[in-house]
UniProtKB/TrEMBL annotation:
<dbReference type="InterPro" id="IPR052194">
    <property type="entry name" value="MESH1"/>
</dbReference>
<dbReference type="InterPro" id="IPR006674">
    <property type="entry name" value="HD_domain"/>
</dbReference>
<protein>
    <submittedName>
        <fullName>Metal dependent phosphohydrolase</fullName>
    </submittedName>
</protein>
<dbReference type="GO" id="GO:0008893">
    <property type="term" value="F:guanosine-3',5'-bis(diphosphate) 3'-diphosphatase activity"/>
</dbReference>
<dbReference type="Pfam" id="PF13328">
    <property type="entry name" value="HD_4"/>
</dbReference>
<dbReference type="InterPro" id="IPR003607">
    <property type="entry name" value="HD/PDEase_dom"/>
</dbReference>
<feature type="domain" description="HD">
    <location>
        <begin position="31"/>
        <end position="125"/>
    </location>
</feature>
<keyword id="KW-0378">Hydrolase</keyword>
Amino acid sequence: MTDARLLLDAAHFAAVRHRTQRRKGADASPYINHPLEVAALLAECGVDDAAVLAAALLHDTVEDTETTPDELAARFGARIAGLVAEVTDDKRLPKAERKRLQIVHAPQLSAGARLVKLADKICNVRDVTHHPPDWPHARRREYLAWAAAVVDGCRGSHAELEARFDAALAEGLALLDAGD
């Protein structure tokens, strides 16, 4: 399969699986916009590994839909399924434990999974800053601090992504400090 075909297949698969989901922000945008944004950010920052880009498109399918890891492996191969598995939370665990484990596991992620994790956190921080869910400022600030802790475990992976995360975090904190 060509890289273009792989990426289009992954985008289509993710779109079908996320078709009924919306983002938590006030605009309730279609969920598929998020994995598309994550993959586009990686490409914009020079990531051209088709498996990493496909994993970015698919990164929430196991966690947030009925997709199984075996299904991803059968359709997209073991490497892509493995990258998705690395960034997938175990929804059977309590939310606080899932969040704690993201911080703990971040330093052990493979190079490709770290890229997906970094781009995901950048996009999420931008969303919490510019299209926030109906959360009080304290919860938004807690999210930003937690995202920073996860990203700290991925440092040394990609300077441009890390700089973009730092800029998004600084902007989010500044807006919260300003009372937005």
